[in-house]
Amino acid sequence: MAGRVEEIREQLREKKDRYLEAREALREKKEQLKELREKARCQDESEDCRDKKLDLKKGVREHLIKTIELIDRSLEKLQDRVENSKVLSEEEKQYALQRIAELEKQLEEKKAELEVLSETATNKELRTYIRELKDLWHTVRKEQRWIVAQLTNSKQDNLVGIYIRYGDRAEAQIAKLAEQGAAIAQLEELLAKYRESVEELKVAQADAKAAWLDAKSSPEALEQAREFQHSFREKAK
């Protein structure tokens, strides 16, 4: 069992490293693209100017390739998180994996389109492709927020459930002590305070869950969701 857990952790580390490498590669291509754009600002009809403009198109294509690789690594990492989640139900896992598979299919289609897109493609063709790829990247990010929200909410649900069970066990132990004639007034007072804290945690959990659901369709709501998440963690302590 311990070996299997370590194997899963190693897989997750590898996927994360591959994602970080893809992100760094895209960052480097973005910097190179800036330089190519500057050089291609020439307006004359010389061969040198034409070569610079062609280099820019090649640079755009390479940048698009790295963007696709980053999206692919991002989905790969997300899929691992879902598959190895200890908090999602099988039904929730299957739904999330189905959505990831649909996005991967769309990404494969965009990759195939890019492979047949010539390095001498027109600016209009490039702009259309870039817009469509940006739309797909935006969709992927929305789905990532949604799936991460499910992972987060499920963890919170489990944690609240654990605290509720702690309270129930404590109440049972206090009842046993009472039957044995022990003084339990102070214990009952502590248990009452504990119950109040758990109720506050339930409210924080509900607020955080609602905020995460809003964050699926509104990037602006993401920051508020994180604030509610922080509030939940503080109360959970």
Brief overview:
The chain is an all-alpha fold. It has helices at 2-39, 47-83, 90-116, 123-179, 185-215, 220-236.
Which characteristics define this entry?
237 residues, mainly alpha, 6 helices, 0% strand, elongated
Query: What helical percentage do the residues reach?
Result: over 70%
Content of β-strand: under 5%
Q: What is the typical, i.e. mean, pLDDT?
A: 83
Number of strands: 0
Question: Using only CA atoms, what is the Rg?
Answer: 26 Å
Shape: elongated
Query: Which residues form runs of ≥5 with pLDDT under 50?
Result: none
Terminal CA distance: 30 Å
Biggest sheet details? none
Q: Report the total helices.
A: 6
The computed structural class is mainly alpha
Order of helices and strands: HHHHHH
Tell me what the structure shows.
With 237 residues, the protein is an all-alpha fold. Helix content is 87%, strand content 0%. The longest helix is centred in the middle third of the chain and has 57 residues, at 123-179. The radius of gyration is 26 Å and the shape is elongated. The mean pLDDT is 83.
